[in-house]
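ok trying again, last paste got cut off:
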Amino acid sequence: MTARMKLTLSYALVVVLSGAALLVVVGLFLLRYVPDTVDFFPNRTDLLRAFVPMAAFAMVVLLIIGWAGGWVLAGRMLAPLDRIGHAAQLAAQGSLSHRVHLEGPRDEFRDLADVFDSMLEQLEQNMAEQQRFASNASHELRTPLAISQTMLDVARNDPDRDVDALISKLQEVNTRAIDLTEALLLLSRADRRAFTREIVDLSLLAEEAVETLLPLAERRTVGIEVTGGAAKVVGNAPLLQQLITNLVHNAIVHNHAGGFVTVRTHADAHAVALVVENTGAPLSPYEIGALVEPFQRGGERTRSDDHVGVGLGLAIAERIAQAHDGALVLTARPGGGLNVTVWLRHPFPGAPA
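nice, full thing came through this time. structure:
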């Protein structure tokens, strides 16, 4: 039976049982006080003879009313579920743009419909993001292969080709393709949250990242320093190390000669923060919003010999932060440059900072 039929039977049964209970009460507790003697008219037998047919008729009427009323009430109660079910069918067929938009007072069905609409909206955004990402990734992966093919074609038709120069260029293109593939794998790993967790101190990871990238900062004449105290979180050390390295590397290559990069950590009773701040060119709000999009590159990054770039540095950093139930916040510095703050959960909420 359908849910509507089950509810209808339940309503009808409640009405019939209530009517039957009322009739039994009348029959047992009212008629018992009527004497069943010959000299009294009408006696109990006469009243029962007149009461039973009317009671049976009343039961039939109650059954019909209970059935009809139950059918209508069940239909009205289940109407929101029908709309949600219709939206789910459309979503299963690939249409994620449909919404329930349930009207009326806020109750359990309205809350369910609103949650379902939010889920559909999130799915639609994720699907669009995945399609855009797949398209960009296909283009990015095709570019090194096309460059290699072009260089090989040119070298094949050039009798005076420089083999050593060709090998060097092919090696650069191949390295870029490998870097892009590894970045895509790391991004996928962060999205799937397929990693182990342990207590990690962000301040130690920050010092290690700065020490690793210090030669790059010196070549670009960019000052760099690490400040702050211990900032322990629960997470995966290699992924968090990659997050910090990406942010510091990004801060160095998107800087100007004589600029600086500051990396600091701090913790309060509920959250832990990692802040990477760098000088650089002024950024508009639109540019800030687009920086975490996959395959977004700055012009300096693509031209620099220090970093060819695959356009996934900040995107990977954001995904790693989200995989650790955190957030990555980007703000423009008043004098130019970028301020990146990563907020992560405190491993022991409520503990002293």
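cool. The chain is about 60% helix and 10% strand. The CA atoms of residues 87 and 98 lie 6 Å apart.
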